[in-house]
Amino acid sequence: MIGYYAHQHGNGHLNFARLFAEIFQDKMCTFSSLERPATLKGGFVQLADENPDGTANPENQVAVPDYLHYSPVGQQSIQYRSVQILKEVLERSLKLMIVDVSVEIAALMRASSIPYAYVKLPGHRDDPAHVQAFQGAVFVLAYYPEQFESKRTPEWLRKKTIYLGFMTDRKIEVQSKASEVVKNILVISGGGGNDRLLKALPVLPKRFPSAEIKMIGMPEASFKHTRLKNCGYIQDFRQLLEQADLVVANCGLNSVTEILQARKAFVAIPEERPYEEQETTAARLYEHRLAVDLHSLFNLDDSEIMEQNQWVVDDELRALKKLKSNLIGNYHRLPVIPELFFNQQLEQHAE
Q1: Are 66 and 85 in contact (CB under 8 A)?
Q2: Could you tell me the pLDDT band of residue 220, with boundaries at 50, 70 and 90?
Q3: pTM of the entire structure?
Q4: Residue 217 pLDDT greater than 90, yes or no
């Protein structure tokens, strides 16, 4: 049985935990201080919140060591959640903890002699804390293709990483023939902040004066424009995505995955994130002609905007099934899992 720690900031970490649980089922337990989603399978441990709770005495605070990012001294909620995690790991006999993401949980696992796999997000994660979390992991996981990796990522880390690629369990109907004129635009706002996206919105009515523009992902009262229809929060927006000729969104992994899966023309607007996470993803999207940047819109006609390349998205979770098969019988030699995964990929390509 494996564990999956899902960080509490944003919804993406818990969504990937849900995808893993679809494959591992009752052989997996998710740990998070977020509420359990109704569709999450397997076990679940509701953790204490790590946000400041007023119990850490200011006079006891000292500099955070370089292998950690957030480490207040004397905070009771963090003490309690650490005990929670270790107790559940032992009682459930977990053979591996997937850490998505927290260098503090990685340090706790390693110091407690518990093998862990660390999830590497996009961007330049070469600060001491991340480097040590990668070094201490039995292997590393990335939920994007290796072609989207930061050019600053060293070779030893690439070899240690299993690139699962873009993956989802959602099914989206792909249009057989794309329009050559942009008539319908869908703007998707992610959950982690959208300052740059908001600043870009006035450009769309100017560039596409006759297009219908719909927006999802933010409160209906938060943004109003005569040419933009704010549809608010929509849990399942597949129909809107299928109807769109052009999608405007930031570069979070979940948004990018669904847009590429639908094979839609894409205006990628990277939001400011730590470690240049979205900027790195956007650069790879532009490089592979999978998206255009906002400033290119006035230099391209509609047909040129629509002529973007396509990328295969794993909507059958084949990579996760392969990972599960590699883990079976190999929990006693976890560091070889990346090599097994890579060799299996080569065999399948050869066939």
Answers
A1: no
A2: low
A3: 0.93
A4: no
**Distance of CA 194 to CAs 255, 256, 283, Å?**
13, 15, 18
Helix 253-262 with 277-287: angle, nearest 10 deg: 20
**C-alpha distance from residue 165 to each of 66, 141, 145, 199 (Å):** 30, 10, 4, 30
CA distance 153 to 136: 16
All domains of the chain, ordered by start, with CATH?
2-167+316-350 (3.40.50.2000), 184-306 (3.40.50.2000)
Helix axes 318-327, 337-350, angle to 10 degrees: 130
| 321/270 Cα distance (integer angstroms) | 31
SS (H, E, C) 88-153: HHHHCCCCEEEEECCHHHHHHHHHCCCCEEEECCCCCCCCHHHHHHHHHCCEEEECCCHHHCCCCC
- Which of 124, 110, 101, 107 has its CA nearest to residue 8? 101
Q: 224-280 pLDDT, tens per residue? A: 677 888 888 888 888 999 999 999 999 999 999 999 999 999 999 999 998 999 999
One DSSP character per residue, 159-213 reads: HHEEE--SB-S---PPPSS--SS--EEEEE--TT--HHHHHHTTHHHHH-TTSEE
pLDDT digits (tens, 9 = 90+) for 161-215: 999 999 999 988 887 666 789 999 999 987 667 889 989 999 999 999 999 999 9
> Residue 320 in contact with residue 164, Cβ under 8 Å?
yes
Element (H, E) at 339: helix 337-350
76-80, 102-106, 146-150, 340-344, range with the lowest pLDDT: 340-344
- Work out the number of other CB atoms within 10 angstroms of the CB of residue 194: 22
Q: What is the largest CA-CA distance in the chain?
A: 65
Q: Classify each residue of 16-30 as buried b or exposed e, where b means 16 or more C-beta atoms within 10 Å of its C-beta.
A: bbbbbbbbbeeebbb
Which of helix, strand or coil describes residue 216?
strand
Reduced to 3 states, what is the DSSP secondary structure of residue 22? helix
**Residues, the chain, total?**
351
